[in-house]
# Entry
Amino acid sequence: MTWPDWVSWRWVLGAAVLGLVVWQTGTEPFVTAFSRLDVRTLVLGAGIAVLTTLACAWRWHLVASGLGVGIRMPPAVVYCYRAQFLNTVLPGGVLGDVHRGLLHGRDAGDTGRALRAVAWERFAGQLVTVVLAMVVLLLLASPVSPFVPAVAGLLAGALVVGVLAVRRPWRVRTSWVGRVICAVRDDIRFGLLVRRAWPGVVLASAAAVVGHIATYLVAARAVGVTTPLMTLLPLAVLVLVAAGLPLNLAGWGPREGMAAWAFAAAGLGASQGVATAVAYGAIVFVANLPGAVVLAVGGGSRA
# Structure
């Protein structure tokens, strides 16, 4: 299967999940979500998005600097807003990040390193998201509680293997595989694990995760979910992990599917879960509208 075919199938899978959700719950959760949103909720979501965008821009600044294609914070924030907006309107949820990597690579004079910097900072964000999710799911009851210890053990083992692989002094640079291994090792060592970068990368990623969770909780309260926070928090974590999968249509699909299943499994009803996920998507879209302004005026094109 070629790359374009794989990309198309990812979008088809996202659309299929969304269609299944609509078939099972109807359109009422969608109507409920949009009718319950008010200006106060949208403004609160936009305010949280400012903090999460700053955190993501700082993470990118740190990783890019380590890889030798540094970017200052002001243009990084502009690039991130534009990328986030594109991610919410284009299939896959990653095309905006590819766009900012290409533009930064043009300005920095090294497209390869710039794209790798974006890929690694996104990877760092997803890794911290999964680790924090495991912590929350280990501490709080959720529909997946019986499986969490095994998954956490596998994740810990994978992290240990990864660290040992990075620290191993690979010397095989003659073959194509060897060059790839060395490039990955060097990117991780200098972009993520260098002492001046990794504390900030972890902190920025954690701040972004907290911001996304806070936005999801705001969406839940907006659509009338009155479940206690300790019950709602693990459900929000599950939905956000699913939302990070690149199998969506501008963010839609896995997010609503996981919300429907998790809320139903927790005894809260699939419709409430879908309404919360839809409200979250709407809040995120409005919060990222500054990126549309940047795209329209062509600002932030120079790093």
Notes: The first helix runs from residue 3 to 25. DSSP finds 13 helices and no strands in the chain.
